[in-house]
Each structure stands twice: as structure tokens, then as C-alpha cells.
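Handoff note, outgoing to incoming analyst
You'll be picking up this chain. Sequence as last confirmed:
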Amino acid sequence: MINNKIFIYFLLITIFSLSISYIAVFIQLKKANIKIIDLLLQKNIILDQINFNQNNFQDIHHENFLKFLSDSRDWAFNYIETSQSEIALIAEDLKKDGMTKYYERLSNLLPKDENINN
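Most recent structure output, in case you need it:
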């Protein structure tokens, strides 16, 4: 009978000990899961920021490139118009000085709508 009581006490103590251990492990596992979820959320926030920064960086470079193209085109058109005006003036001066050969050569450089050799 004493052996049965000892066995029952031992069994109860073992069950109680295992229950406490299970509860402790369960609490640690719950904390670890919360930590993992927190880290995953932080990772997603960081990835979103990286993607936003990359898209923003690409947009800025795209806008700068378009501005460069527009400015270059405007500069080129301005240069061409100025050059053609100067060529027309020089050609007219050559024509006035009697140098028709050079006048014709220069006037042929101009587009047909601006050609002074009508």
C-alpha cells in the first residue's frame, strides 16, 4: 500500500513537473512566434522602403533624362536656327559683293523654305 502511495505521489509529481515544463516551453514558443512575426513585418517594411526608393530613384533618373533630351533638342534647334540665319546673312553679303559662286554654295546649305536663292 505504501508502495502504491509512493507510486501515486511520484506519478503526480512527474505529471505536475511535466505540465509545468510544457507550460514553460509553450510560453517560450509563443514568445518566439511573436518575435518571428515581428521580424517578418520589419523585413516587409524594409523591402517596401527599398522598392519605393528604387522606383523613386528610377523615376528621378527618367525625369532627368527626359529633361536632358528636351534641353538638348531645344539647344540644337536654337543652334541650327542661329547658324542658318548667319549663313543667310553671309550669303547675302557675298551676293552684294558680287561673289555669286559663294553665294549659291552657301544658299544651297539652307533648307528650301529659308533658301534665299528663290
